[in-house]
Design goal:
Length: about 240
């Protein structure tokens, strides 16, 4: 396992971004510092959708790792034994509010925090990206984007899909402007924010042009600041 707590938050696309040549997945696996890491997929936000689970195995079975997944909508395994033995835990996108409610019923946040503190790398896309922050921008309910209190392990807020969904930028700006969101990290599809402890180490991108931004309130308006990006190589050596 990795020596330091790490979280890698992916803005969107994730498993469906270039599944035959996944530079972002290789990057995430490398952070475990294991030659053959154990990785567990948590698809709760999709209702354990079989398509997402199959895509996870299709992607990671081509890489040097030992994949498994944690279901909640069929007989669950011994969850502490499963999660606390992993090098990497990867959380799917989907309905964040429902995912967090199920997790709390099963006391999963406590186990995930224990795994994170012991060096297991936590990663995820969309719902699996925003869940680690104080707040996230979500479409989990209603007919518009809303702020959602999340686990709070990382400070401030996060918004995924910043370039692929047209309402994301104006809604995030409006929420920050009126004080419904704190300073917000906005991630485009294919961009990922890599945190070591609670500090942002770097933004990596697996898609040309994918970016990330800091959005904060200033006076009666908002400022959007682009963040430096490290573009990942498209092919393994």
């Amino acid at each position: 396992m990795s020596a330091k707590p790490q979280i890698i938050a992916i803005g969107g696309a994730g498993l469906f971004l270039d599944p035959g040549n996944p530079p972002l997945q290789r990057y995430i696996l490398r952070q475990t510092r294991s030659r053959n890491p154990k990785i567990c997929f948590i698809p709760t936000a999709t209702g354990d959708n079989s398509i997402y689970v199959a895509q996870f195995y299709s992607t990671f079975s081509k890489l040097r790792c030992r994949p498994t997944h944690l279901p909640f909508f069929e007989r669950a395994p011994n969850i502490p034994d499963l999660l606390l033995s992993q090098d990497l835990i990867y959380v799917a996108g989907g309905n964040t509010k429902s995912m967090l409610a199920i997790w709390r019923e099963w006391q999963l946040p406590k186990l995930l925090r224990q795994a994170w503190s012991s060096g297991t790398v936590l990663a995820g896309v969309s719902a699996g990206a925003i869940c680690w922050f104080e707040m996230g921008v979500t479409d989990s309910w209603a007919d518009r984007l809303m702020p959602l209190p999340c686990l709070g392990w990382l400070s401030n807020a996060c918004c995924p899909h910043y370039d692929s969904e047209k309402d994301r930028r104006p809604s995030t700006h409006a929420l920050v402007k009126r004080g419904a969101l704190p300073e917000t990290l906005a991630l485009e599809d294919g961009a990922a924010a890599h945190f070591v402890g609670r500090k942002l180490l770097r933004i990596v991108s697996a898609r040309p042009g994918a970016g990330a931004y800091r959005i904060r309130k200033q006076g009666n308006g908002v400022i959007e600041t682009p963040l430096p990006i490290t573009t990942l190589p498209g092919r393994s050596s």
